[in-house]
Amino acid sequence: xxxxWKFLAxxxxxxxxxxxxxxxxxxxxxxxxxxxxxxxxxQRVKALxxxxxxxxVLQSSSAVSLMVLAFVGAGLLPLGNAIAVIMxxxxxxxxxAWIVAVVGFSFKIDALxxxxxxxxxxGLIALGQSPRYVxxxxxxxxxxxxxxxxxxxxxxxxxxxxxxxxxxxxxxxxWVYVLAGILMTAVMxxxxxxxxxxxxxxxxxxIDFNQGSAMVIGAxxxxxxxxxxGAIGGIPAKKQAALSSLVFNLGTALAVLVTxxxxxxxxxxxxxxxxNAVLGIAAFHTLFNLFGVMLFFPMIPALVxxxxxxxxxxxxxxxxxxxxxxxxxxxxxxxxxxxxxxHQLFLSVQYISNRYLAVPKPFMRLVGRSTxxxxxxxxxxxxxxxxxxxxxxxxxxxxxAHEISRTEALQLEPVIRSSRSIMNATMNLNELHGExxxxxxxxxxxxxxAYQDFKIRLERLxxxxxxxxxxxxxxxxPGELEEFFKVVVEADKQFIGAxxxxxxRSAIQEHEVTRLLMANRFFTQxxxxxxxxxxxxxxxxxxxxxxxx
Length: 549
Prior knowledge:
It is built from 21 helices and 2 strands.
């Protein structure tokens, strides 16, 4: 008799094992994987293999796809390369099917699962002082749960298989099994879990290879639900990336259904489905996604164009002063450029603060205004700030194309240097965000306090910049800038001193203090660049007033 509760318990244990495995791998190598996804996706072929490798390590195509969505939304990853990563992720996730098929049905599961749970559980207690070893122990427990849940599912359906006469069942057609695969994956939010259920039912004889193949096709379509949910309410770039995943999976599914006899023949060349349907399904899962990559990878440029037509990016108009000023009149152009750089500073600090502090709020686009609600616009993303910086530099180049006096040239150079410094500081803080967030997720109380310290210092910078940009020409501003610079220097000294004391009393390890000091160095440098930029912009105005006198 079919034991439904045992099957559900097995499925729950399997899903918990998948979740625990994903979380422990994220903590062990998540930062490295994020860095790899960001840095090794400059070319589409590299992006494809990055998707394969990162998903094979993380064991979750959904997690990698959501990471890609975040990078696309932040303007750090071009859409075409993001699509390549998502395609690679679909290939990488097939490793789970091979692990389950080879290990889960070829060995006595108790002999593998129980020791891993026991060793991992003991490690959680005995090695609790080390976050790294704790996560390694969690990984062992996760693998144990994975196979224990699989065993529960297998045992629960074995009796059902013996009681069912497959020849007496009506031929429901492959579409029913495709839909079943879609629904199961959409509900469980894990194609790996669906594949495990498919392998279990094939192993026990509930369904045959062809029906299992149809469910695999459905599971690959169903896995797009997660990324589609992640893109709801997002910017157009996120929607483009999410829809590309749907097009890839749905298009591959339709193409494979049409060519299913040929695909089955290819699987038969590797494993005879009649003798070993479990390994046959694992091979089919891999060939399915490889076929999709070969079919759609050359079409990425055309797909990008269509997606951008479907979800056009609404560019945020960020320039306020230079857009209404002609570079033909250097005196007016320099004044407008200076105001625009102040505006750039304001928007940049708002963007960074929103990332770190996670307190979205309306803000005033026009520096110096604080009451007109009609002037509120959406917070710019990183690509907006890059575009604003490019427009500022273009305007600067147009000013230089005209004949300007030596005095005007001396006033112009500090302004453009300030703009570059602001962009540089923004880039540093933007890239540092992931590292500081990882510091905040550590179990060590000192690391968590350091994370809070970074947030407090950034909030202080945000408040100060907002104040100065409202009235940059106030006579007291130079003195305020000097005092705030001292505050930044003192905060740097206090942070280094606190790290030194923490190391002395063994509150943090050597590798942890290196992470903290490097993060603090980039953080402090960025703060200093912002203040020095404001000082340079103030000095330009004072020199302009002096030349007029």
